[in-house]
Amino acid sequence: MAMMPTFTTYFMGPLVGSFYRRYPNISLTLREMDQDRMEALLRNDELDLGIAFDGSGSRDIVSRPLLTETLALVVGRHHPLAAQRRVEREALSQESLILLSGEFATRERIDRYCRQYGIEPQVRMEANSISAVLTVIQRTPLSTLLPAAVVRERDDLVAVELTPALLERTACLLQHKDAWQSAAARAFSTMALEVAAELNAEGEGR
C-alpha cells in the first residue's frame, strides 16, 4: 500500500502498529509517493490501496473518507506563539517560515491560500522533507504550516490554530474500482477506517 508523505508523519505509525498487533503474520509493503503516481499504480493494479486526498479525477478510482486534516502554524516550544491556542491568519505575514518545497501538494495549497487572502509569508527556508522541516523549527525561531496532527506525539512542538481555519482537507482510502481485493487488503482497509475514526475522535476532544 502507499500513502502521501504528510500521512507518514502521524497516521502511518498508529495504523501499522494496530494492524501488526492484530495480524502479525500478514506481510505489508509500505511506499511513500505523490498522489498522481499512486493513482497510476492503482489503475495498473500495482497497488492494493492508497491513502491520499479526496478529489481524484479518475473514474477508475474509488475513495472512502478517512479523516479531516487541518493545517496549523507549527512552532517549537521556545517560540513566542507556543503559549497561544490560536492566532489570526494575518499573523502569518509577520512570521519567518520554513515551508515544504513546491513539489508537495501541501505547499501548492498554502501558496494558493496566501494569494487569495493577500497574505505575504516570509519564507526563509524550504525543504523537501517533512522531518527536516520539523527538525529546523525545533531548533530555530522559524515556524511552519503543516497538519496539526503532526505534533500529536511530540512534546517539543506545538500546533497553533489559525482563525479562520487555514485549510481543511479530507484524507481518503483509494483503490481501483474493479480490482480484486485480497483478505489482507480488506483487513487493512477496515483497520484504516478504525484508526482514522479514533484519530478524528481525539481531534474533536481537544
Automatic annotation (TrEMBL):
Record-annotated LysR substrate-binding domain positions: 2-196
TM region(s), chain numbering: none
Pfam families documented for this protein: LysR_substrate
Cellular component terms (Gene Ontology): cytosol
Cross-referenced InterPro entries: HTH-type_LysR_regulators, LysR_subst-bd
GO biological-process terms attached to the record: regulation of DNA-templated transcription
PANTHER family registered for this protein in UniProt: HTH-TYPE TRANSCRIPTIONAL REGULATOR YBHD
Protein's name according to its UniProt entry: LysR family transcriptional regulator
